[in-house]
Amino acid sequence: MTAEVVPTAAALVIGNEILSGKVQDTNSRDLALLLRRLGVRLEKILVIPDDRSQIAASVAHLSKCHDWVFTSGGVGPTHDDVTIEAVSDAFGVRTVTDEVTADLIRAHYGARCTDGHLRMALVPEGANLDVTESVRWPTIRMHNTFVLPGIPEVFRMKLAVVEAVIGRHRPFVSHAVYTNMDEGHLKPLLDAVVALFPDIDVGSYPTWTDARFRTKLTFDGLDERAVLDAKNAFLATLPSGEPQWMEP
Amino acid sequence: MTAEVVPTAAALVIGNEILSGKVQDTNSRDLALLLRRLGVRLEKILVIPDDRSQIAASVAHLSKCHDWVFTSGGVGPTHDDVTIEAVSDAFGVRTVTDEVTADLIRAHYGARCTDGHLRMALVPEGANLDVTESVRWPTIRMHNTFVLPGIPEVFRMKLAVVEAVIGRHRPFVSHAVYTNMDEGHLKPLLDAVVALFPDIDVGSYPTWTDARFRTKLTFDGLDERAVLDAKNAFLATLPSGEPQWMEP
Questions:
Q1: Which of A72, A79, A201 would best serve as a mutation to test chain B binding (most B beta carbons within 10 A)?
Q2: Which of these three, A166, A183, A206, is where a domain ends?
Q3: Which pLDDT tens digit goes with each residue over A94-129?
Q4: How far apart are CA B163 and CA B148, in angstroms?
């Protein structure tokens, strides 16, 4: 059996508003859920300020270390939107106006169109401008780096383009078991299943707020048979009355 | 006028459950809001898996680059809880049992106490174990690195200890202005105020879902007078009928 090559990814969330706590980042979680479904391993989420040199350095580094990179934020027309220029810096290219996008902007704003609006047509030179049937506004991708907007509704809309471009790999499978045992008592049982199934990612999550259970266990992997075998091996070691319930 | 030295911080969120999208991280935002109030600049949030060598490398790096580091997650007793050992690795010390914590654990679990439970008494050798009047369970801090639990309710509880240890600096001041103008039209007005007030962090955030306004502008800084001056300079340039409203 040869080891399966799983594509990897990193998310770069850009915005002072996240670091100051004004806004709760939800884009990285929406991305995480999509990538899980597509069989891509999200290895890192990094949140940094609207700072051109920091963004450029992060994109340059992440795009070398992961198969896919997704930036979120900093693509509007104002002074604090520096992501496009930073991505250009990261790949050593100029920032240029994409005329197709510029025409879309002129058509949208008509006589009210300003130089400010047209800043939204700037792209790193040589970028791919991906469109799909349902998302016709171009989505900027520079090599392996998608440049996505920070507004959550628009970010989510663009995920359809991400899915179309990177395609579906073997999706991750996840099963959950809910118990009333605490982690101290679960530890030897978990150690046993982890030793038997090294390829399965076994997670243990205690709750302090849900009265229906004490610890949630998760069994994740790419091979559904192995995930089920690990879960069943664990279930066989539980005392009577356990588990409380399972998902799915 | 000498430049004010603002303490800096980084958050290291540890957990496969965040990267797989099972759980929405909210700890980093709770931390961000506290640090804002305390006058500490949160410069980076990094989310990585439950991987000892990755955690160790990240802690070693972040603790050198920032005044304070806050880890979240990976401090329970199970196989996927490797943060304590990783923090020890980062600082080149052994992981040892803290007898005070071990006694608390034994008192709590009584006859049901297992070796698994006692793993929660492990600390990096030489760590500070901070307590406050209200949070008597020791909070682990290795030099400038707080090691906080991932469970949101417990994380929030520990923030009282963080506040007690790092103290209050000059808090950040933030004012917000809500307008019906779009960013393309706002850009020249914002550029003007940014040029006049380089020390003020001016943010511009369009909404796609709130019908009451089109763009939220924020004015943040440490000097309340300068924040108000920047806001007022901007307000003076708005057309009649604007802004829609302001906060505070």
A1: A79
A2: A166
A3: 999 999 999 999 999 999 999 999 999 999 999 999
A4: 13
